[in-house]
Each structure stands twice: as C-alpha cells, then as structure tokens.
Amino acid sequence: MSDVVVATGLGKRFGDYRAVDGVSLSIARGSIFGVLGPNGAGKTTLLRMLMGVIDPDTGTRSLLGSDRPRDVAHLIGYLPEERGLYPSMTARDSIAFMGALRGLSWAEGRKRADVRLETLGLGHAPGMKVRKLSKGMAQMVQLVGALIHDPELIVLDEPFSGLDPVNQERLEALVRAERDRGATIILSTHVMAHAQRLCDELAIIAGGRRHFLGSVEQARALLPMAVRYRPRVDGDAAEMERLLPDGATRQDGEWRFALADDGVEPLLSALVAAHHGVEGLAIERPGLHEAFVHIVGKAAAEKAS
Fold first, then answer.
1. Among positive and negative, which fits the CA dihedral 125, 130, 133, 136?
2. DSSP string of 27-55?
3. How many CB atoms lie within 10 A of CB 232?
4. Per-residue pLDDT tens over the stretch 198-245
5. Is 298 left (phi over 0), alpha (psi -120 to 50) or beta?
6. How many CA atoms within 13 Å lie on the side-chain side of 190?
7. Using CA atoms, how far apart are residues 112 and 129, in angstroms rounded to an integer?
8. Which H or E run contains 284?
C-alpha cells in the first residue's frame, strides 16, 4: 500500500513553547492510524500541521501526494477537537453545508444526510435545529458532516468525547466501514480501548516528541506477559508476598505480577507445596493502556534525567 501521509521532522513553536519537536511518520493507504498521547502532548498541533491548518516551523509533510495540503482539502474529512455547528440550522442543513464546502451539491448533501443519520439511529434528527440536539447528537451530526463527501483521508480528533456507549459503538462501526470502503483514517483519542480495537498502526506522542511508532501488538509486546493468580486458600499476605515475584499486587483476592523468564510452573509448585493451591490462573499480554502508560512514563523519566 502506498503512503497517504508522510511527515519528516515536523516541528512547531509557540513563543518559547515547543509544541511539536521533530516528529516523523508515514501512514499507509486504507489503514486506521492512531495518534495517542497525554494532554498537552502536541497531538492536535501535529494534526493541524499535517492538514495545512497551520504551517510547521521545521520539517516537511505530504498529504495524498501533495506537499500543499490545502490543495487537497476537498479530499479530506476533518472532525476537530473543538466542536462547532450553527445553532439555528437544522441537522440536515448543517451536514449539507459542510458537504458544500467540499464541493458536494446542496441537494445531494441533504439527501445523504437523511440516509446516514438514519443509519446511525438518528432518523428523527434531520429536521431538528442544532440548538435542540443533545451534545452527543450534535457531535454525531458534525461527524456525518465531516464524512458526507466520502473523503479519501479522514482525520478525527477525540471523536469519542461526550458520546454514550451506544454511540461509541456506532462510531467504531462507522470508522471500520470508512476504512473498508478504502478511506485512510487518522484517529486521535485518549481512550486506549478504542485505539486497541481499531488501529492498524499508531504513534505515541509525549512532550511534543514521538516515542513509539508501530502496531498495537508491537506496543503491547514491550511489556512482559502478565499473570493473574487467585489462590484456593488465601493465607497470610506477608507469606504470599514472600512466595510471589517482586512487584506483585493484590486486588479483590487476586494477585497480579509479571511472568518470570522460567515460566509459571516453578512458582505454582511452590504455592501448591505451601498449601495455597490454585483457584484461578490466567496468563495474558498487557493491554494498550498498560503499554501507553509504560511508554509515556519512560519518556517522562528520560526527560527528567
């Protein structure tokens, strides 16, 4: 697959504050690419530079084969972190208006709006004024508007914020459907569960710098396998801590610790010999949340040293 987005050494300052510092990445056509990071990491500034909303101080970027992102703006669908709709317009006309800004006819935009809102369970909403919509409904309307012209590249900045669980599932399904029709999606989110389920590749940004680039599984593989152990006889906590590896923690009667290099069998033998037994045992790879915390924490420690 060819790369839809290529960025090399992007940097941006605001006064004395360096928001983005030398970030490079490439995004394959037809993929879902996550941009993850803590608050203030520089994610939104990075996305705005990629799309040409602001220009970088250093570095280069290419979007859909063009080094002038604004020239291909009609091929991009953008949902910004800051939501904004005209309150006196109807949902249908708001969507048609956003489509018209990207070259879609007004009549076609209104027609598509009705169909796509119905698909998202909002068939009652097209004629409602934006001021009458709930926060979540308004967000879905703005999302539909960002996608109404069937863009080749979709940029979603914190799209799950403010959505209830039902609409979060609908949004996940919509993102997958857009990817399946051939669109490339850049997804910025704080919710690791969404990123773990959706993203093919991701970058983790902290302090304006990129600290990881790769797949979800590659990020998770940075941490050792984790063991969850529940004893059949829950004895003295001090004795359990003596038998279990360093760093073991206890929650709701279950012990959690990293899998040792020699596996779990020697430990289980010791626990059984000490008459603790085994009521439950699971060995699993830590999730993206744990990997994210590890990567960001390591970045903070390196910066402080």
1. positive
2. EETT-EEEEE--TTSSHHHHHHHHHTSS-
3. 12
4. 999 999 999 999 999 999 999 999 998 999 999 988 767 777 888 888
5. alpha
6. 11
7. 18
8. strand 280-284
